[in-house]
Amino acid sequence: ARGAEAVVLLADLALPGAAEGLVARAAEALGGLDVVVSNAGFADRTPVAALTDEGFARTQDTVLWAMLRLARAAGPLLAKGHAPRFVAVSSFVAHSFRTDSTLFPATAAAKAGVEALVKVLAVEWAPAVTVNAVAPGYIRKDAQAHAAVDEAARQAMLSRIPLGRIGLPEDVAAAIAFLASPAAGYVTGQVLHVNGGLAI
To answer: What keywords are annotated for this sequence in UniProt (predicted)?
Structure first.
């Protein structure tokens, strides 16, 4: 944002102890914490029959455990912040289970857990901190960083979205910005779906 200070800090939140170090460094660099966005994760399409214990655990570590560790580390500092907010990023894969679309068993389980923790934290951290989640649908990503989707697959996606388009990163960012803003001061324990109607 114009006039704001940005600090880049790296950590692997799947590793025990990493979240505490990251939060401490961020609080020191920024003079405290007012907003935390938990957005770690990846999509695992491995079907249940082929899903190993290690593969399932890796997804839980990267998504669910990472969010829990970040929340535990950030909670005490957020409680001292100005209008503090915690926003987690979930996914439509925790809500969309259809025979005509790809399933993400491990990721769906992890993101469902994230949403459950959001509701628990909304109660535990009230009234000091609001806790919410954003659940994006199909979002256009950097073509250089992700495998391209062929035209047939793109049309199949579009056919399931009432608004008729793939979402943009800006759509998700706007939802997160709202939940982190004073305008969402009376919103907590909620999951805001940003999917063009995909999960109706």
So the answer is: Oxidoreductase
Separation CA 23–CA 106 (nearest Å)? 27
Distance in angstroms (rounded) separating the CA atoms of residues 120 and 189: 8
Provide the token pair at 168. 């943009």
Residue 146 has pLDDT above 60, yes or no: no
Q: Please list, residue by residue across 147-162, b when 16 or more beta carbons sit within 10 angstroms of its beta carbon and e when fewer do.
A: eebeeeeeeebeebbe
Reduced to 3 states, what is the DSSP secondary structure of residue 129?
coil
Q: 100 exposed, middle or buried (CB, 10 Å; 0-12, 13-18, 19+)?
A: exposed
Order the strands of the 191-194 sheet from edge to edge: 35-38, 85-89, 130-136, 191-194
**Alpha-carbon distance 179 to 131, whole Å?**
9
Do the Cβ atoms of 152 and 13 come closer than 8 Å?
Answer: no
Domains of the chain and any CATH numbers: 18-194 (3.40.50.720)
157 has a pLDDT exceeding 90: no
What does the pLDDT look like over 50-94, one tens digit per residue? 999 999 999 999 999 999 999 999 999 999 999 999 999 999 999
Nearest-angstrom CA–CA distance, 67 and 93: 17
Of 150, 66, 157, 63, the residue nearest 110 (C-alpha): 63
Q: Which whole number is the average pLDDT over 160-175?
A: 96
